[in-house]
Amino acid sequence: MKNRGGSASGRGQGWLRAAACAMAGMMAVSPALGQSAAPATAGAQNGATNGAGGQAAMGQPGVPAALPGSDAFAQIPFFADGALSPDGTRIAGKFGIGGTQVIGIRNLFDTTEKPVQLAVPDQTEADWVHWVGNDYVLVKLRALVPLGQGDRGYVTRLIAIERATGKVTRILWNLGGQNASDVLWTARDGAPEILVSAQHSMYLDEGFFPTVHRINLATGRGREVQSARDGVMDWQADGNGVVRSGVSYTKSGRLAQLVYRGADPDQPLRTIDKANSKAHEALLDPLLFEPGTDNAIATFTSDEGRDQLFEVNMLTQQTGRMLFEAPAGTEIDHVVMSQDRSAVLGVATSDAPSRVHWLDPEMAEIQAAFDKSVAKQGVTVEISSLSADRSAMLVTLARPDSPGALYYFSVANGTMQRIAVFNDQLKQVPVSPVKIVRYKARDGLEIEAVMTVPKGREAHDLPVVMLPHGGPWAQDVASWDYLAQYIASRGYLVIQPNFRGSTGYGTAFRRKGEGQMGLAMQDDISDGLAWAAAQGLADPKRACIVGASYGGYATMWGLAKDPGLYRCGVSISGVASLRREVNDFGGFYMQGKFSDDWKEMTPDFAAVSPLNAVDRITAPLLLIHGRKDVTVAVGQSDAMASRMRAAGKTVDYVSLPKADHYFTRLEDRKAMLDAIGAWLAKYNPS
């Protein structure tokens, strides 16, 4: 921050006043990137975008609005999972273009520069998009492929995209291992070089354990800098590109060891920590290494179950200064690093994962100015990406009832300019209001849920849809959710329960899910329905259940476990047979740990698999599944549909030939929403 002209106080805080002015008017409609102008316009230099103020732009109270159609909710977000380039002039990420999601690079200031656009390969998903210097973008691809003998497994690879030409270079695609995409380091000086940990083979005796390669992205060529070591599956490097530590596992995966070396790359690796997963022990997990020392920054869980961020000496494992402690009942979601990975700038917690608790004083000051400017609007301001010198940033503005928009903020002159709205049909007008509620499960455990009330309707005696999340190790928060909002727009109260076993509430809450899959985890969902009925919010005789992935499992199992509770169900990409999907680990390295993790969730997979309980289902079931899903096999829904039909049950199956697990095509997402809307209207009219 020193190279930006001194401290905030040294600049007289003029930039803070400019930021406040920018925030006051930035909710207004303005040109969107890829649709019209880029942000560097003369009109932006006064610190505010053109148009009305924030309150007016967020909707006109009392003015009735036409009910948005499914195509409005199905819009693919303009920008997702991306970042600002180190020099702050371009963005790269996943763009919603022409009704589908593509990998793209856009110049924010020069509209004559041709954008780079790359379709995601068939049967493949893009996990993330990262900049390497200002001239290359790295993309991690993941696919589910046959491994022989009826088994399938994930294979991951990297591609590098040259910004200037759009040239794509495959990185280590000649290797025969499953995973060749673990990026440990990127060059600090802007050079197109990275460290990648990669397996060379799928077989234990032929290069199964990964080696670390230093790769030049321009050529795709490189050299090995760390040879494979028996048992080591995960490597870590410091900001200088030195491999500092690795985690090794026994074949069962139950025993783990941390090996470590100092800052000198010629030092040997030695074991400094051990852990047994059966005893719920955890290894020391360094997030970054402080340059030239044996000190690192790592996360710990206190005896009270609270996540903490500490400085630690790797050799002695003695902790030093505590940098951050998550509030009680929350977890550390992720940390924000400086561009050179030499410092932790901030920490996001699970209660608001898009919000960062900034440890860097200037970033904290900027965040506080943003928050103050929108305090009365119910808007969340997320600083989502920073330039290398932190003089420019991407800022996301959103509300739980609005898709929000992406902005560019210049610290130097305090200007804020909108890049684009995420949904150009719904824009930033509020749809249905969202709030956090809490209720007691039947055993007294407090459950938090997200509740969406249909816009313009009183929350009283409403038809209701229970919408459990996927995972199950996940969490719903009060943020924009296109599926919940679409269902609410059709007149339904929507409740998204964070049942026991969900992440985000600490280790103790997560472990309450052990042995309870299909049991208390499912009861927590139905107890949410009972609570809503007791509060007079919902009509329990007009209830349905809808969910995706694990939520699809919970839908099918909810119909079987509690027949008569729901009038209908919709399973989207759901798991019907737990054993086939999550418990076949025979022959896999670390199979013991994987099996333990799932067996902890339920003692009998067959007993809580919907496929084995079709005879108990009485309510109509709609199945929706994309045939290009690489996360949950489409055979899960195929089998469930076949079993339901054979049993004479009411079932319909929407099989979408081009849809993936996340429905990243507008056509598929609209088809899904239309099918859900029609099913609910038929079996549980609002």
Write the layout of secondary structure elements.
Elements: H1 14-25, H2 54-57, H3 70-73, E1 79-84, E2 90-97, E3 100-107, E4 116-119, E5 125-132, E6 136-148, E7 151-162, E8 168-171, E9 182-186, E10 193-198, E11 211-216, E12 222-226, E13 232-237, E14 243-249, E15 255-260, E16 270-276, E17 286-289, E18 295-301, E19 307-313, E20 319-325, E21 332-337, E22 344-349, E23 356-358, H4 361-373, E24 380-386, E25 392-399, E26 402-410, E27 415-421, E28 434-440, E29 446-452, E30 462-466, H5 482-489, E31 493-498, H6 507-511, H7 520-534, E32 538-548, H8 550-561, E33 568-572, H9 578-582, H10 591-599, E34 621-626, H11 635-646, E35 651-656, H12 666-683
Parallel strand pairs: 30-31, 30-32, 32-33, 33-34, 34-35
Antiparallel strand pairs: 1-2, 2-3, 3-4, 5-6, 6-7, 7-8, 9-10, 10-11, 11-12, 13-14, 14-15, 15-16, 17-18, 18-19, 19-20, 21-22, 22-23, 24-25, 25-26, 26-27, 28-29, 29-31
Helix pairs in contact: 1-4
Describe this structure as you would to a colleague.
The protein has 686 residues and is α+β, with helices and mostly antiparallel strands. It has 2 domains: 2-49 and 77-421, Methylamine Dehydrogenase, Chain H (7 Propeller), CATH 2.130.10; 434-683, Rossmann fold, CATH 3.40.50.1820. It has 12 helices and 35 strands. The chain has an 8-stranded mixed beta sheet, sandwiched between helices. It has a 4-stranded antiparallel beta sheet with strand order 1-2-3-4, with no helix packed on it. Strands 5-6-7-8 form a 4-stranded antiparallel beta sheet, with no helix packed on it. The model is unreliable at 1-64 and 583-587 (pLDDT under 50). Its EC number is 3.4.-.-. It holds the Pfam family Peptidase_S9. Residues 1-34 form the signal peptide. Keywords: Hydrolase, Signal.
